Amino acid sequence: MIQNITSKLTFRVAAAALMLFGGNLLGQKHVDLGEIHGNFEIDAQTYKADSLIGAPEFPEKIGNNSFMNLLYTRGKFESGVRFESYYPTLQGFTRERGAGIPYRYARYRNEKFDVTAGTFYEQFGSGMVLRAYEAWGLGFDNSLDGVRVKSEPVKGVYLTGLVGRQRNAYSNKVENLSEGIVRGFDAEWSINDSFDSLMTAKTRVKIGGSFVSRFQKDEDPVQIIPENVAAFAGRASINRSGFNLSGEYAYKYNDPSTVNNLIYKNGTGLLVQASYARKGLGVSAQVKRIDNMDFRSDRNGTFNNLTLNFLPPQTRQHSYRLPTLFPWATQPMGEWGMQAELSYNFKKDTWLGGAHGMNLSVNFSRINALSKTATLDPSDGYTSPFFPLMDSVLFQDINIELTKKFSSKFKATLSYLHFDYDQSLFHQLTGFNSSTDVSAEVQVLDMSYKLRKKHTLRMEFQHCYTKQEFGSWAMVLAEYTIAPHFFIAVFDEYNYGNAQVNKRLHYFSGLGGVNWNNYRFQIGYGRQRAGVLCVGGVCRVVPASNGISVAITGSF
Amino acid sequence: MKKFFLLSLLLAAFVGKLAAQDEVQVLPEIKVKALDGKTVSTADFANDGKPIIISFWATWCKPCILELNTIHEEYAEWVEESGVKVIAISIDDARNAPKVAPFVEGRGWEYEVYIDENSDLKRAMNVNNVPHTFLLNANKEIVWQHNSYSPGDEEELRELVKQLAETGKIDAKE
């Protein structure tokens, strides 16, 4: 009996499979089922209490942040979902514990329209009035959830309209979106692309404008708080044979919030950038003035939560470890920033260039505070003249970097950096208890030597000299790679100059891993110092920790 | 039992066939910004049917710069042997985007460079971290990809590009 059923079943399955397979073979009609692709990342870390560095007891012992994206595309249709899980959340991330699908969307595109329903990321201009983006490593995600329509009605004219609510970065559930509703519109006109005669012109001109408005109910029993807050921005850029000049001005109407201490003052932002580039030489300069430009989808939001705009920091983004001791993020309540950078390539077979050429890059950045005078009516906040207080340096960084290839086997990079900064601004973030300004000098030497085909040894020597804050540091790193699959590295950061003798600690770490084309597995063990980690202008506080970490990433 | 065995074989062949079809991913159509500010669609990326390398990078990413610098030193030879074109996609945001053009020219790179400011292309191509490098064939199908860069990786890539230019496909599936 059983045998009979099994054989009948087998027969049916076989027939069905044959029909499918055979049909496909005979008809040779390619049925387009679309494509599914995606990526994932699993980050896990074990925690061990370490009283020396102040790493607390972590009851679960292991933290874990993970996600997987699935993207389905078929012709003009596309959809995607992301599942995120935090069981429990890694230390230093403010995400709640649990799992969910905070990202899901459907999108349809044709020649004229591009419509997205669900979760999306978007940026208007330089982002001063709207930027919804995601940075997994920082635990940052302020995506919008709603509807977005993009259109190019005439060649060179790009329109974007959107409405939605924002993801609460702390939550991994779509139900916990911002209370505020966000409406936005952006138009950009690339003038050259609209006229055949200008298409190949040497001078290219672009103009654009954005409007963003937030609605949030006023539930304050005493004060009358604007329920609708509008922000505008206008921008223009001109480009001619290597020269580029661009600027954006943003304006935000009264928006009393937790961050600005419930003042009704309007906010402004100005960003001007100029650059020149030709083969072997690049120079750029930027200035920025920000005044009361913290803009969120919820007026009660703080820190990195529910931010609606992005105020680009005018400082260099460092990638070596010790220089990242001194990060900077734009002060939304007011600052003047300026920055200049030069890259120059000394050609091969010149005196400085040697046989393989040499690269020089110099960067200078400075952030000043605005001069503020409190107004008579405290709800107006303050007034501030356009120009900054020149003696109020909040942050300054001068750095120079030389990269030279000495032979086909040996390369080296040498950097010198000097920082001055007023660390009181970071007090609230890190809880450091020191009121002096910090002045620090950092040197980095990075050398890589190819031992034999595909085998490379790289060494970094870093030193930071300072009398303030944590005192001086020294660091050594050794990395051995066997291309294309294996890598192993060990490094030690030694806080030898700490004023407190019992805190002159070694932060030793070792890590290694395997790269398998689009998959990567990494395991590490070590002690991590507490500090501020800033990438892309967003900072988060990394707590001290001690333990094993595992990271698995892949895309398919 | 015999029938069952046959059936399994048939099913395996069928699933295998589907899976084989799924392997192919075509370069998605996304708008990116050229260094002169012009909006360009990835649909317009072209290289006369010769191989294209797409490399995701950022001005703050040391291994990315190392990879692009290394290829830059041998680029003329690569182009000569396979006609390959390198397209470098910067994922720098508004903080660093204005510095990309001076950065690229200051290093003398001869690549086509675009900025993916809103990370649209990065998401569409499932890039987790930079550097992430893709190799495309004449039909702009992804035939190979690699996340991260270690010195020497370029030798493997160069071989694959050569193979792709000569035979239209690559067989190193390692």
Report on the structure:
The complex is a heterodimer of chains A (556) and B (174). Chain A has helices spanning 2-27, 191-194, 424-430; strands at residues 35-46, 62-74, 77-86, 98-109, 113-120, 122-123, 131-132, 134-135, 140-141, 144-151, 157-166, 181-190, 203-215, 228-240, 243-252, 267-278, 281-291, 335-346, 358-368, 373-374, 382-383, 393-405, 410-421, 438-452, 455-466, 473-482, 486-494, 506-516, 519-528, 531-535, 538-542, 545-555. With 556 residues, chain A is mostly beta strands. The longest helix of chain A is centred in the N-terminal third of the chain and has 26 residues, at 2-27. Chain A contains 3 helices and 32 strands. Chain B has 174 residues and is α+β, with helices and mostly antiparallel strands. Classes of the chains: A mainly beta (556), B alpha+beta (174). At the A-B interface, helix 1, strand 1, strand 2, strand 6 and strand 16 of A face helix 1, strand 1, helix 2, helix 3 and helix 4 of B.
- Helical element count of chain B? 5
Q: The biggest beta sheet of chain A, please?
A: 24 strands, antiparallel, barrel
Question: Roughly what percent helix of chain A?
Answer: under 10%
Task: Report the sheet-strand fraction of chain B.
Answer: 15-25%
Strand order of the largest sheet of chain B: 1-8-7-4-5-6-2-3
Q: What characteristic shape of chain A results from the CA principal axes?
A: globular
Low-confidence stretches of chain B: 14-20
Report the β-strand fraction of chain A as a percent range: over 45%
How widely separated are the two ends of chain B?
36 Å
Number of strands of chain A: 32
Tell me the series of helices and strands of chain B, N- to C-terminal. HEEEEHEHEHEEH
In terms of per-residue confidence, which ranges of chain A show pLDDT below 50 for 5 or more consecutive residues?
A: 18-28, 428-433
Assembly state: heterodimer
Largest sheet of chain B: 8 strands, mixed
Number of helices in the DSSP assignment of chain A = 3
- The chain-level structural class of chain A is mainly beta
Shape of chain B: globular
Range of helix content of chain B: 40-55%
